[in-house]
Amino acid sequence: MAQKTNLVPQVLEYLNKKGYNKTEAMLRKESLNVDAHGQPILTRIEDTGGRKWGQSFRLIKGWIEHSLEIYRPELVRLLWPIFVHAFLDCIIDCYTTDALAFFREYKGDFEAEQGQELRELEKISLPEHVQDNELATLYRQKKYRVSLSPMAFAVLIEFLEARDNEGGKVILNLINAHVDVATLNRAATARGLQKLMEEKEKSGRMGELGEDEGIQGHQAGSTNTDVNAVGTLSKLSLAPMPMEPDLMEDVKADLSHEDSVHPPINGQSTLVDQFEENIKQEPADDAAPNRDQIPFPPSTARDVAMEVQKVKENRDRFRIEGRTGGIGPGLSVTMFTFHNTFDSVNCIEFSGDNTLAAIGTAESYIRVWSLDNRPLVSPQDPPGSQPSSSRRLIGHSGPVYALSFSPSAAIPEQSSNDDTTASAATDSQPRYMLSCSADGTVRLWSLDTWTNLVVYRSHNSPVWDVRFCPHGHYFLSCSADRTARLWSTPQIAPLRIFVGHDSDVETIAWHPNGAYVFTGSGVGDKTVRVWSIVNGNQVRIFTGHTGNITAISCAPNGHLFASGDDKGEIMLWDLRTGRRTKTLKGHHKGGVWSLDWSVESSVLVSGGADKTVRVWDVQQNKESQNKSNGDS
Q: According to the lineage, what is the superkingdom (predicted)?
């Protein structure tokens, strides 16, 4: 060993005698990085094998945790994508032991927000697993988008370059390869960075997942991934669907007749005036969709009766205002309990006229009840059969996951001898119901004969949700095959297939005007997307949830919609701007399973796995526009 150590001076002396000056200088420089035993001294972290990712991550994590408070909420969003790709790179380079140790050491930092993803990544221990794992493939194929202010980005780059040999270069390479850092100068162009951070602190969104953050790589709300298209959003037609001229005249005639038969009481507007107010379109309002682009069947007497009942209900309803000033109740809630279900009820649905309730069960059947104890009879019932206030519908071969009644209208209470009311009640009741199941089918049921009319087959996986269009005729379904499909009731093939989600499409909703649909997805996606049914294009995409999307609902005013996840968070979004307006936190144990709005779009009701129903005041006014957290 001593002879080997003395070889370096001997070689240097030989090179000097021969005049190989450059070679001698190079050898002298290299010999400085050799220890007493002739072993190389590692001066670069890149030479430490599988440990380099753990040491590099420790470097960036420690720096972010001790960085200036004004930058920390932005910079901390980088840790998750860096963690994921550091782990995957370590696995791909066959440092399995180091990769698993790294994963165990830091996974606790992300358990609260990314628990589902961590469970997916934990299955990976070999390079072959990376290719077979859907989540890993998604992260390797698409860049993870994070928005930083220019100052925060400059500070980050300066630090990484200064600590080049200590792990900065490793982190910089990861960011360059797998992270889309968008330096959106929102702070400078809007209110200043300090103002922006104060706003985040007030809203309770410090360090929270941004609405423009995620694996998709897009501007907030926009489906355009071009970095040069910052702030560019397609204009949406959010106003109500225009009424057919003939239908409008028929409705006015019926309302005029109602006003003459039942004159309004003192202080109450006439039904005709109420109707005119409802359909009035101000020049500054949102544009209405083109009715000619969305074909509907010709209007019938039933449609006239439905519109008349809607006007009556709109005028005579009790208005649930978010702030009543202490005068009168702020809200009213009615609850129903189903006994002896033995945990078999998967879904519950109420008809629009509040006369029917239906459940879908894990035993593959549907049961419908009459809430007013009216017998549910069918022309096909055997003579002399005993009428019942409930019906069982059998046809599916798998658990039933969702139900949807065709549109109907609640009937205002009138005198018992009012023939007009009795006729309207018959006309405005739902005539059909949709159901979807694990058997991959959607079924249309007649509520006149209580039989199955049509079976719609197109999805190749379980169908999670189904929803009738607010105007009837069309309906939407979504499935584990990662698609949502638009149908019309007379046709057995879908009219549109909405493709784009990276995971199961688990919940859907309609815009009140029927021109747009909403889809929500889960693991690996966690986005809500808005689609135009006219051309099938995706017009909005919203990210920000850390849990799987479990419920979505659009407000009756057509401007806001709410989305809930299995972490218990509810987010409110503005369709026009494509931005999140509020984050509602109250369901602390489990997910949010259902969402619904008041007619005024000022009150949101949510039901969750924590066995609570929460009523949220989401009214937008001058006092509350600066508040981002809702009150329940």
A: Eukaryota
| Cα–Cα–Cα angle for 361, 529, 495, rounded to 5 degrees | 70
- Total structural domains in the chain? 3
Q: How confident is the model at residue 3 (pLDDT cuts 50, 70, 90)?
A: very low
For residue 361, tell me if it sits in a domain.
Answer: yes
Residue 598 lies in a domain: no
Same domain? 8 vs 119: no
Structure tokens that stand for 292 in this block: 């000619």
Reported as type and span, the H/E element at residue 356 is strand 356-361
For residue 338, being part of any structural domain is answered with: no
268 with 314: CB under 8 angstroms? no
pLDDT of residue 59: 93
CATH number at residue 399: 2.130.10.10
How many other CB atoms are found less than 10 A from the CB of residue 447? 22
Burial of 174 (0-12, 13-18, 19+ CB in 10 A): buried
pLDDT given at position 91? 92
Statement: residue 419 has pLDDT above 80: no
CA-closest candidate to residue 514, choices 488, 551, 492? 488
For the chain, first and last CA: distance in Å? 77
**Closest C-alpha among 465, 473, 480 to residue 518:** 465
Please report, for residues 53, 144, 163, 398, the alpha-carbon distance to residue 167 in angstroms, rounded to integers and kept in the order given: 8, 21, 7, 54
Whether the CB-CB separation of 553 and 595 falls below 8 Å is answered with: yes
Phi-psi region of 578 (alpha: psi -120 to 50; beta: other; left: phi over 0): left
130 and 13 in a common domain: no
| Global pTM value | 0.77
The residue from 526, 544, 562 where one domain ends is 544
CA distance 424 to 123: 60
Could you tell me the pLDDT band of residue 360, with boundaries at 50, 70 and 90? very high
Give the percent of the chain with pLDDT over 70: 81
Domain that holds residue 19: 2-31
Which tokens sit at 468? 């009738």
Tokens of 472: 């009837």
Give yes or no: residues 158 and 93 share one domain: yes
Using the predicted structure, report yes or no on whether residue 463 has a pLDDT greater than 90: yes
pLDDT of residue 281: 61
